[in-house]
């Protein structure tokens, strides 16, 4: 381990380093935040012990989203007209050759964002965009300001309430354009606005806009005919359409971005997913599933893997390099995709070396060893455990 000795006397530096090393201990911590399908509560669970840390009351049943840093978890309550924010209690400091981990109790912050029918949460490098369908407005803020309890907010307003989305990218905000003739339908495109609220360029067509994600320096937005792709950097962003090629008729409406490897994973029809590499000549690889798809996510630790849960109760592991399902595991009783789209069905999260699948009708969380892809313990959770968010990692604790 190398350290730069500047003008500080060498002996003092070495003594200080020896003291710091003596008190440094490698620690791993993972916490799982679990919302209930019917009740306005969020559980925090210590994944190292399987024990509940605390339960937080919110206003309405909630969807959960973690920030990119993992320091905050956002509880988006569409039927409660509010977005609440929790501190995960886990944070990391980068020291170049190693990282520090700090832990404290999770808590519900005294910060919330009121507005009609909040829907989408998007975090890009600490710039957070919160879209409110019932107003057609976006509230943009910074995670650092939220943690200090003083979030500065700038609003971006569209021409009509609609089921939309916004992405904050430095000085610019991508915001969905409503269908003014039929505001109840999906947006028709993306506009880019600067900090003054002025449009930059014209409308980027994106009929049936629904679904966005980022992977590395790329941001993707799903449309009826393909994906709008932009790379982040300085200056006004350039946006290009990547059309669906050599695929059967269909479209993606949900995207997740790869970690470690640059790619996107999207739904495509009821019983398939598609791997998307915008920089490849073979940009789209369709993967057929044995039954209809329920939920999917990527593995942020093991970059070559992603996971899909299907209605027959199976968890499937996708090798994204090979472009195929390479393992499957029966976990739950069947969860039919017939019925209402919002019925309680399993969700997936990855917490370090464990894959966690909620089983809301049984009131348990199934855990799977991610290295061997074999089931391990079950964690009982009262009620109907539904949405999952995992936060954690390893570092030196002083």
CATH architecture of the domain at 118-210: Beta Barrel
Instruction: Please report which band the strand proportion falls in: under 5%, 5-15%, 15-25%, 25-35%, 35-45% or over 45%.
Output: over 45%
Estimated radius of gyration? 22 Å
According to CATH, what is the class of the domain at 118-210? Mainly Beta
Strand order of the largest sheet: 3-2-1-34
Number of strands: 34
Largest sheet: 4 strands, antiparallel
Signal peptide: 1-24
Protein name: Zinc transport system substrate-binding protein
Keywords: Signal
Organism: Aminobacter niigataensis
Write a structural description.
It is a single chain. The longest helix is centred in the N-terminal third of the chain and has 14 residues, at 10-23. The protein has a four-stranded antiparallel β-sheet. Strands 4-5-6-9 form a four-stranded antiparallel β-sheet. With 398 residues, the protein is mainly β. Helix content is 5%, strand content 49%. A hairpin with a 4-residue loop joins β28 and β29. It is globular. Mean pLDDT is 92; it is low at 1-22. The protein contains two helices and 34 strands. The protein has a domain at 118-210: Thrombin, subunit H, CATH 2.40.10. The two termini are 18 Å apart.
